[in-house]
Amino acid sequence: MMVIPGGTIAMRDDRTGRAWVVELLSFAIGCHPVTQAQYAAVTGLWPSVRVSAQCPVENVSWLDAVRFCNLLSETAGLRACYALDDDGMGASRIAGSNGYRLPTEAEWEYACRAGTNGPRYGDINEIAWYRENSEGRTHTVGQKQPNGWGLHDMLGNVWEWCEDQYDPEVYGPYRVFRGGGWSDTERGCLATNRRRSHPTFAIDDLGFRVVRPLA
């Protein structure tokens, strides 16, 4: 994992035009999305459509990702971050937890940008697996150039679940995912691009990476 220094990020919802600023504390984040081998080591499961140990795990729902975070925390002797809702459609953060969790949307975009302000942190063919170069599949993590903070595959390869609800007043339990995947065009692989789906949704270009608080 890489330590990301605290700072502020200006966020914007292009759908509503709403803009806001988020102040972030330092945190640690995975250098790449969770791999299939890492997922299997914690859960015993291989859910991916295209099985390859060092490719990102995919075909996992938001709830699958949250359960993985809790299991990983328990394995590491840390306090689990999430309490799953009784209806099985969501989870809430446990106060005082020090374990692994999904990044907030602000943390994800801040880490992706790594101090840059453009739509991407580099040339798309150098940093991302997307429709034009992926050959219709995921690829081993870490093969493309990292961003300025040493993070690989923040754009392309697989979309990544974030902790946040998309817009609870309109979409209820739907959660955010970011970054674009192997099947997307250039327009899909932008630091600002956000999509949403139900927390039980899973597909073969959607995975996740984990973060840990440092304080």
TrEMBL record:
<dbReference type="InterPro" id="IPR016187">
    <property type="entry name" value="CTDL_fold"/>
</dbReference>
<dbReference type="GO" id="GO:0120147">
    <property type="term" value="F:formylglycine-generating oxidase activity"/>
</dbReference>
<dbReference type="Pfam" id="PF03781">
    <property type="entry name" value="FGE-sulfatase"/>
</dbReference>
<dbReference type="InterPro" id="IPR051043">
    <property type="entry name" value="Sulfatase_Mod_Factor_Kinase"/>
</dbReference>
<feature type="domain" description="Sulfatase-modifying factor enzyme-like">
    <location>
        <begin position="1"/>
        <end position="212"/>
    </location>
</feature>
<dbReference type="InterPro" id="IPR042095">
    <property type="entry name" value="SUMF_sf"/>
</dbReference>
<protein>
    <submittedName>
        <fullName>SUMF1/EgtB/PvdO family nonheme iron enzyme</fullName>
    </submittedName>
</protein>
<dbReference type="InterPro" id="IPR005532">
    <property type="entry name" value="SUMF_dom"/>
</dbReference>
